[in-house]
Amino acid sequence: MVSKTPVRRTFGYQRESFINMGKIILTGDRPTGKLHIGHYVGSLKQRVKLQNSGEYDEIFIMIADAQALTDNADNPEKVRQNIIEVALDYLSAGLDPQKSTLFIQSQIPELCELSFYYMNLVTVSRLQRNPTVKSEIQMRNFETSIPVGFFTYPISQAADITAFQATTVPVGEDQMPMIEQTREIVHKFNTVYGEALTMPDVLLPDNKACMRLPGTDGKAKMSKSLGNCIYLSDTEKDVQKKIMSMYTDPNHLRVEDPGCIEGNTVFMYLDAFSTEEHFAKYLPEYKNLDELKAHYQRGGLGDVKVKKFLNKVLQEELEPIRQRRKEFEQDIPAVYEILKKGSEKAKRKAEQTLAGVKRAMRINYFEDAELIAAQAKQFQAKE
């Protein structure tokens, strides 16, 4: 079902008012490969909508190369080569560098310093309880050999978010535990040192089917490493091939048999992408998805027909993205210039936040004239 407004989560903390009173977005992706339609419906499509809404004062979109290195330290070339792939996906999906600041995480050294300070506010046991960290460790078979940088990812993500005083973080459902931890860090820091950080809210997709799109093979998560993705940059033929081989109901062997829609990947994709306009255009014998589901469940509707409809729906969504990507691919130096300017702007913002954090912690020694004067007076009094 589709809700009328995006879902905001606050995890029990009230919004705390700080230095920044504007509405600011921070979000991003790891450059470990091209972006897929799970990224698109889970977050990227919504970012474009928010960017064009005019409701936000600043929007920062981060290519998280430093985070990607936490589990790719032995293969930095993979990360290096995919910076441009993610940037092209961003631009082709509709992110506009005139409205959104696109930047590279590693070019903002202030993030490392913020992470260093935040580590003192989080326990090892709290990191171990993070559901996202636990599932990622299991998926990658890290067990006890988990890299420290990967284990402390929730802390570095808190630095990413707070460095830009983000009020809103548009993410997929799987990232909610991470944002909850960020909010805990913000609350702890502001309680201990005084108000310096902004409490962010999560903004989930307004369509529940978009929160976590499964892989084409029916696995719970669409993942580059599992090879079960449809990429934004896939050709028309590649998309069609992947759709026609998608997981459906394994017991739906004949057209006349009743089919099951629960766990049926094709119908889950239709939940995420199809509209009544698509039915009027491509499958007019059905008014909407509910009617299509009902026919499938009572029998008499084959998987091939449903897959062909899904193919038309996805092709309509992806074709403009493919065309824009081809245009941006013709001037790669210009794309890097966009990232350079964005990184410079992002660094200036992070510098301001770090300065405020150090003032709150009272470790801005050389700027603290009161401290220097008091200590000078103290030692002079000894004479």
Task: Explain how this protein is built.
The chain is mainly α and 383 residues long. It folds into two domains: 7-213 and 332-369, HUPs (Rossmann fold, 3-Layer(aba) Sandwich), CATH 3.40.50.620; 236-329, Tyrosyl-Transfer RNA Synthetase (Orthogonal Bundle). 52% of the residues lie in helices and 7% in strands. The chain contains 16 helices and six strands. The strands form two sheets. The protein has a three-stranded mixed beta sheet with strand order 1-6-5. It has a three-stranded parallel beta sheet with strand order 2-3-4. Helix 9 (176-193) links the parallel strand 5 and strand 6 (201-204). Helix 11 packs across helix 14. The termini are far apart. Residues 1-5 have low confidence and may be disordered.
Task: Note the topology.
Elements: E1 7-9, E2 24-29, H1 37-53, E3 58-63, H2 65-68, H3 76-93, E4 101-104, H4 110-118, H5 124-128, H6 131-140, H7 148-151, H8 153-163, E5 168-170, H9 176-193, E6 201-204, H10 236-244, H11 265-273, H12 276-282, H13 289-298, H14 303-329, H15 332-361, H16 369-380
Parallel strand pairs: 2-3, 3-4, 5-6
Antiparallel strand pairs: 1-6
Helix pairs in contact: 3-14, 4-8, 4-15, 8-9, 10-14, 11-14
